[in-house]
Amino acid sequence: MRKISLFTFSTLAIMLLLSPEVYAAASGEAVSGLALGAGLGIGLAAAGGAIGQGKTMDAALNAIGRNPGAAGQIQTPMIIGLALIESLVIYALAITFLLQSKI
Fold it and tell me: Hey, what CATH topology would domain 2-101 get?
């Protein structure tokens, strides 16, 4: 329960910090919020992708170590999973570039 409460509080705090109304200048532009969102977005995406790829490799190598005969059946889904994880990180990079182009 404590983890859920902490996650909910953190999510709400980040949403309030990154909302354009908080950083809006008199002219209505939210430059600081976009810069902060772009920086945090790519950092969190890279960290999440690295953790996901590490866990995937750990599980696959442990499975191959326990059953070397199944290496061919484990390797293909592992590579597909790694490619999908990396595609999410590249998608976050593209979003970051789009946010930076608005600054």
Answer: F1FO ATP Synthase (1.20.20)
